[in-house]
Structure formats: structure tokens, C-alpha cells
Design brief:
With about 700 residues, this protein is mostly helical. Helices cover about 70% and strands about 0% of the residues. The protein has 39 helices and four strands. A hairpin with a 7-residue loop joins strand 1 (about 15) and strand 2.
């Protein structure tokens, strides 16, 4: 419904009587009558329009409030300006209290309502208009198309008594966008009068559909071609991989504009012809930063990071975008120090540059440094945006640090960024990874809009915390929505089946992913299913899955063989365990954990000689057991402990606390007859006592 409450800031000179079915009758004040003949409103109305065009809403509002008299043009300028600047409620409110309306008032309102998705409101105004012109009809067609309602647009078009070329062009554009190219061609052929936009719409449509020969035929048939037509044809050739033909056409152009040069440079870059792109850039009569950044990005994308860096050092066209792209390139190659150095030397930094440094550090396992830059950004940089908070929350979930994550959550809520799906997803992931599934579920249920990442975050989070059944139930709820699961979804689902011991369901979902969702299993999916089967001793069946992988041309990675080795360790299958261990060591010869597991398996089955051979092999290759690592967060501070390391200042206190816990555990477990567990705990106590 388009009726909305009137805005309170506007000052009105008199009472108003609203009647949508006819003309609004103004009840003017005496003052407004007395100034009618003397006041020239045109300069003021123009000034309001200019302010609105430049985004100066308050200035336009002040002018409007101070005007002793206003006419319909004044109100139209304000309503249109509100819509242009995203002030939907204000525009609707002012329209509702207009003393008089003309055709432009109604057309402006229809366009504004359609832009903000109020289709019913636009339709209501259109139906109750006292009179309509072709712009009214075109506004409805354009609005329906922009909201994805092509059939409704065609219905309005069919009802038009008088159509202009814009009407035809709008319908053709809508049909091209939804892929109904043949129907668009029928409309094109029926047109009595065509303009250049009609021809370029069809040329663009044919080119996008890969029908480049037909596009060129239309181009050749054009009675008149402007630079837009040439650019459209060139872009079509580039889009279809015909860069050489695009070059020939570019050379034949009677006149090139900035878009012509940019299209060709972008096309050469996309075809990895960086040197040719640079030559063309040099020939440009008016250099453009956008083109230069396209070349730089092309160098970065092809792995020529150092070359791009050298170009930027010498170029006068480098800007914040250039240096930010270069940072992205260095982060992608793991060269963190150079990326940080570039950031520190940048003469100006926008929010994107700050987001890249924070995100890049987090992605390269320098999360703590990324958090420091976040603090620095708050102190001296631009205000954090949704991308900033999403990156910081992701770092908090990777570390993980729940206390800091909660503080960021509070800031997100205060600034209103919790309404962004990406930020909400990051918060759900944070709580889930930190083991707080209830807050994660609460956040998920409060989200007004969800995407596949939202569902993946909660499904994988539940699975990660051992809530396999709940994760499966969440997946079934996802299936009832319009959101399609992806490969990450099924990693969570299969992991949930493994945690919950749902062997049959795990095999069902694996097949469902392959045959119903047409998703090709990755090594992660095979790892999950092999782990599920192995946990329950179905090692032969797990090995058959490995055979299926190899038959499908998928290389069995170390992670899958690791799942097999883990299953063999549990179920004491030395024969298959030896095969799995050897396959892992072929790929990871310095993996100390595999040596230790193999030796342990041999020892537990009484094959000490085999265990000693494993240890000897380990010594020959210089492989050393990696020390165990654990960390705990106390009062917002993270404490890291390495096995055998006594350097922590509170080491003795920590050992004492561990001793106390172990003693209490032994006392509580004395009633059991588990002698092995008792002996293991006694060994731990002795080790801790020696350390203290």
C-alpha cells in the first residue's frame, strides 16, 4: 500500500483534503494568495532540484520549508528528489499531502514506488489516475520489468492505445534480460519506427546468447550507427572470445569514446594480452584510471605481481584502487610482509583498503595482526562497514576468541550492521565454532533473510559440536526452502551423520548429493563418508569408496587415507592400516603423526620389531614428533602452552591446577574397574609432578 504517514519535518500553510479519485482541493492561507502574483518560483524550484541531484537533502528541505508559496512543480521536485536519494517514506508522505497534482506528479510516484518494490502501490496510483500519458504507461512497464514481472509488463504493453518507441524498447529489453530472445525479435520485427536503442538492444541480446553472427547482421543492417552501437558490437565480440575481430572493428570506428577504449583494453586483459593492453593505453588520447587499474588487475590475476608492482611505482595513474588490488595479489601469494608494507606506504586509504588488510591477514593465519589493524582503523581510519565486521568476526571464529567476538557482536548491533546477511552469517559461525550453539541458533532464527552460507554455518556448526541429529533436522528444514544446498552443505551433513553414527543416512545423503543435486563429490565428502564407515568397522566398504574415487579420476588425498588409518587404529586392522599409512607417507613423508600411529598399532598387536622399524625410519628421515599445543582464554587474554615448554610465567600454577583436576577425576572414578584409565591418569600425574 502506497499510503504512508506524512513526514513531520515539512511545514504546511493550510489544511488539506485528500481525494485520490480526482483533483486535490487546496485550502490555501491568505498569505499564499497574496503572494501568488509577485513571487517567481522558477529559480527556487530549480535550486531544489539541483540540491536533490547532488544529494543535499537538508538544504532542499530548508528551501522548501522557507518558501512562502509553493506550486506543483515545487512539490514534484521534492518528491522526485526524495526518491532519487532513497528517502522512500518522505517521498510518499509528501505526495499524500500535495495540494494539487499534475501528470508529472503521478508519473514520478509510479516510478518511485516501483523502484522501491511497492508494486501494489504503483498499480493503485496508475488505476486511479484521472488521466494518463504514454510516460505513465511506460513507467508501469519499466517498473514491472525491474521487479522481474515480465508477464505483467507485457499485459500493460498490450493494453496501450498509443505506443512510442520507448514502450517497444522497454519490452524488448525486458524480454532479452529474461532470455526470451526469440519473442524480443518478434517485437523488433513488428516495430513501425526504430531508434538506435532498438537496434543495440537486439544486438546486445544476440551477442549475449552467443548468436554473434546474427548480432553482426543486425549491426550491418542499421541505417545509422552511433558510438554506442559500435561499442555494443565490439563488446559482443569480446564476450564471445573473438578479440581479433573486435580489434578490427575498433580500428574501423569513425569515432571512439572513453567506453570504446575501456572495452578494448579490458578485452585484451581478459585474453591475457597485457602488453597489447599497455600499448593501447599509451595510445589513449585521454588516459583513464579505470583502464590503468584494469591492466594492473590483469597482471595480478595472471600471477605477475612483481611486474604490476613495478608498473605502479612508475605510473602517475596509480590510485587507492591500484594499490589495494596489489595488496590482494600479494596476500593471495602469501607474501604478507610486502602486502602490509604497501598498506603502510599508501598515501590515502579508504574502507576497502582497510578491509583488505584485515581480511588478508586473517586468511593468511595472522588473525591477531588483523585485529590490531581493526583497532587502528577505529582510531584513525574510516568507519568500519559490513565487510569490516564480517572479516573481524571471521578472525574471531578462526582463533577462536569468543570474548572479543561478543564485543564485536555488540558493536555490530549498535551500528545496525547485523541486518547484513554476511555479518549475521559470520556471527552464527563464530558462536558455532566456539561451541555456543544456542546463541548461534538464536541468531540464525532472528535473521530476516538467509542465503546458503547462513544454512551452511548453522548445519556445519551443529555437526562440529557433535549435534548430528539436530544438524540433519536443520538440513531437512533447508530442503523445504528455495535455497539450494551446495557442496559445503553436504560436508556438514555427512559430518553430522558421522558424529551421530547414522551410517545408512550418510550413504543416502551422499547419493542424494550426487544424483539429485548433481553435485560432484570432492575429497572432503569422501573423507566424511570414509570416516563414517570406518568408525563402525566397515573398512572394506570404505575401501570400495576409495576405489570409486580412483575410478572417477579423483586422486585420493592424504585426508581420506588418514580417515582410513584412524578407522584401522580403532578397529585394529593392521593390514589395511599399513597400506593407508604408507600411502600417506608417500604424500607427506614428514608427517610424524602417521609414524606414531603405525608404531602404536604394531605395539598393541605385539609386533614390537615392526614398531622399532617405523621408529628407525622416522629417525633416518629426521622426522621429529611435533609438540602438542593447547590454549585457553582467561579474562579476554589467550594463553598458549606447548608440550615440554616451561617458559609460560604461570606454568607452575597451571600444572598444580591440572594435578588437582586429575586427582578429583581419579577419586570420582575409583568406583569403576577401568584399571587402564586409572594407570593412564597416574602416569599423567607423575609427569606433571616432575615438571613442577
Amino acid at each position: 500500500m502506497f499510503i504512508s504517514r506524512p513526514i513531520q519535518r515539512i511545514k504546511f500553510a493550510g489544511a488539506l483534503s485528500l481525494n485520490l479519485t480526482g483533483k486535490l482541493i487546496p485550502l490555501r492561507s491568505i498569505q499564499s494568495y497574496s503572494t501568488t502574483a509577485t513571487l517567481n518560483l522558477k529559480p527556487l524550484n530549480s535550486r531544489i532540484s539541483e540540491c536533490m541531484r547532488n544529494g543535499f537533502i537538508e538544504e532542499a528541505q530548508k528551501l522548501f520549508d522557507e518558501m512562502p508559496q509553493r506550486n506543483t512543480v515545487t512539490y514534484n521536485a521534492m518528491v522526485r528528489g526524495y526518491f532519487q536519494n532513497g528517502f522512500f517514506r518522505e517521498g510518499v508522505g509528501l505526495f499524500n499531502v500535495m495540494p494539487e497534482r499534475d501528470i508529472f506528479s503521478y508519473n514520478t510516484m509510479i516510478a518511485g514506488l516501483m523502484e522501491f518494490g511497492d508494486i501494489n502501490g504503483a498499480r493503485e496510483i496508475f488505476e486511479k489516475m484521472p488521466f494518463r500519458d504514454v510516460v505513465s504507461w511506460n513507467s508501469m512497464i519499466s517498473g514491472y520489468i525491474s521487479n522481474g514481472l515480465i508477464n505483467e509488463a507485457l499485459g500493460v504493453f498490450a493494453g496501450m492505445v498509443s505506443k512510442d518507441v520507448v514502450s517497444w524498447n522497454l519490452v524488448m529489453v525486458g524480454l532479452v534480460v529474461v532470455g526470451k530472445l526469440d519473442l524480443a525479435e518478434e517485437f523488433f520485427n513488428e516495430m513501425g519506427t526504430r531508434d538506435i536503442a532498438s537496434w543495440t538492444t537486439m544486438i546486445s541480446g544476440f551477442a549475449s546468447a552467443g548468436r554473434i553472427v546474427e548480432a553482426r547482421g543486425l549491426f550491418e543492417d542499421m541505417p545509422v550507427r552511433d558510438v554506442r552501437a559500435w561499442n555494443t558490437m565490439i563488446a559482443g565480440y569480446i564476450e564471445n572470445g573473438c578479440i581479433q575481430i573486435a580489434e578490427v572493428l575498433f580500428q574501423k570506428m569513425p569515432r571512439c569514446d572513453l567506453r570504446s577504449w575501456n572495452e578494448m583494453i579490458d578485452g585484451l586483459v581478459r585474453n591475457h594480452r597485457i602488453q597489447d593492453a599497455i600499448k593501447l593505453f599509451v595510445e589513449m588520447p585521454q588516459k583513464c584510471r579505470r583502464s590503468w587499474n584494469s591492466i594492473v588487475f590483469g597482471l595480478i590475476r595472471t600471477g605477475l605481481i612483481r611486474e604490476a608492482h613495478a608498473f605502479l611505482e612508475k605510473s602517475p595513474f596509480s590510485d587507492t584502487v591500484s594499490w589495494t588490488n596489489l595488496m590482494v595479489g600479494y596476500f593471495d601469494t602469501g607474501d604478507v610482509d610486502t602486502a602490509v608494507g604497501i598498506f603502510e606506504l599508501m598515501p590515502a586509504r579508504d574502507a576497502t583498503a582497510w578491509n583488505v588488510i584485515i581480511f588478508g591477514l586473517g586468511e593468511n593465519d595472522y588473525g591477531e595482526e588483523g585485529l590490531k589493524f581493526f583497532v587502528k582503523m577505529k582510531d584513525e581510519g574510516p568507519l568500519p562497514d559490513e565487510a569490516t565486521f564480517a572479516s573481524v568476526l571471521t578472525i574471531c571464529s578462526d582463533l577462536p576468541t569468543l570474548q572479543l567476538g561478543r564485543q564485536i557482536h555488540a558493536q555490530v548491533t549498535q551500528t545496525g550492521f547485523n541486518h547484513f546477511v554476511a555479518v549475521s552469517n559470520a556471527m552464527v559461525t563464530l558462536y558455532a565454532r566456539c561451541g555456543n550453539t544456542n546463541p548461534a541458533l538464536l541468531l540464525f532464527s532472528s535473521m530476516t533473510s538467509r542465503d546458503v552460507i547462513s544454512w551452511n554455518s548453522v548445519i556445519c556448526g551443529l555437526a562440529h559440536n557433535g549435534n548430528g541429529v539436530e544438524a540433519i533436522e536443520m538440513f531437512e528444514k533447508m530442503r523445504s526452502t528455495d535455497i539450494k544446498p551446495n557442496q559445503i552443505t553436504f560436508i556438514g551433513v555427512l559430518s553430522a551423520c558421522s558424529h551421530a553414527g547414522l551410517v545408512d543416512q550418510g550413504k543416502y545423503y551422499f547419493d542424494f548429493m550426487k544424483y539429485n543435486c548433481c553435485l560432484e563429490p570432492t575429497s572432503e565428502h569422501y573423507t566424511c563418508i570414509v570416516d563414517l564407515l570406518g568408525r563402525f568397522g566397515l573398512i572394506d566398504e570404505a575401501m570400495s569408496f576409495l576405489g570409486e574415487m580412483e575410478a572417477n579420476g579423483v586422486e585420493v588425498p592424504a585426508s581420506v587415507w588418514g580417515a582410513v588409518l584412524g578407522a584401522c587404529r580403532i578397529h585394529k586392522n593392521i593390514q589395511v592400516g599399513k597400506i593407508a599409512g604408507e600411502r600417506i607417507l608417500e604424500m607427506k613423508p614428514n608427517d610424524s603423526g602417521v609414524y606414531m600411529i603405525l608404531a602404536e598399532m604394531y605395539l598393541s598387536s605385539g609386533k614390537r620389531d615392526d614398531a622399532e622399524r617405523v621408529w628407525a625410519r622416522m629417525r633416518e628421515k629426521g622426522v621429529k614428533k611435533q609438540p602438542g599445543c593447547s590454549w585457553i582464554e582467561v579474562n579476554g587474554i589467550g594463553h598458549v602452552f606447548l608440550s615440554g615448554d616451561r617458559s609460560h610465567p604461570q606454568f607452575s600454577q597451571a600444572c598444580g591446577d591440572v594435578l588437582g583436576l586429575l586427582h578429583r577425576g581419579m577419586e570420582n572414578g575409583n568406583s569403576t574397574s577401568n584399571v587402564a584409565s586409572y594407570q593412564e591418569m597416574q602416569v599423567l600425574i607423575d609427569e606433571c609432578s616432575e615438571l613442577v
